[in-house]
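## retry 2 of 3
previous attempt timed out at serialization; input unchanged, resubmitting
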Amino acid sequence: MKKLIVGSLFASIACSAAFAAISDDEIIASFPPIAQGVNISVEKREKLENTAFEKIVILLKKDDQEYRQIMFSDGKYLFPDIIDTAAKRSYASEFRAEQEKILMSAGYENLAKLLKTYPKNKIVSLGKDKKKPVKVIFTDPLCPYCKQEMKNIHERLKEANLRLIFAPIPSHGEEAVAKSISIQKEARKAKKDSEIIAILEKYYADDSVPASNISTDEIEKEKMLIDSIFATGAIRGVPAIIDGKDIDVK
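## retry succeeded, writing output
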């Protein structure tokens, strides 16, 4: 006999006793209050193969943003997950993983489209070996994890050509944006990879000096570019490292 573990949704919600008798309206009503303007609907219902449960996909939508959530029902109760202990399988986890792949695929598509028109002088390039793949690194001069990643740059260059795109997170403020602009400006004057790496190390050092001679107008324009990167949905934090072929960057 297949062994299944059923999770509880906030508290299990009792409805009618017949299988699949829970209506769409009852399912929607089971949700706690959600932010104003969010529309909730039942997008899909189907029997969960080889079980006595129904799989229900809930669509939460506001303007052009969508989020899908999975629920399960035996006709009387609603549950957030069904776990097949014999197969070590969580149906909710599988659904979330599938949704994540869909979201990232769309995000990469959006990012590739953005980078086709992204200012080339805002991308710092390292490596010109045509035999090596390209790695795109989204980074922030004030991010401690990015600082750590920067220490690996020599090793990464042994395996790939690198394209650095600066995407400071908002909490790091204008200093991170100004440093990004300074790196871009100085890198454009560099003639060798070693010179660019020296510039990066200077601004990523824990005791680095603040950027200077960066205007408010430059910072505001850079912020708009940074916002456009995060708006694609492909980058959710830094450092983020993506294969160039996945976003059409050479």
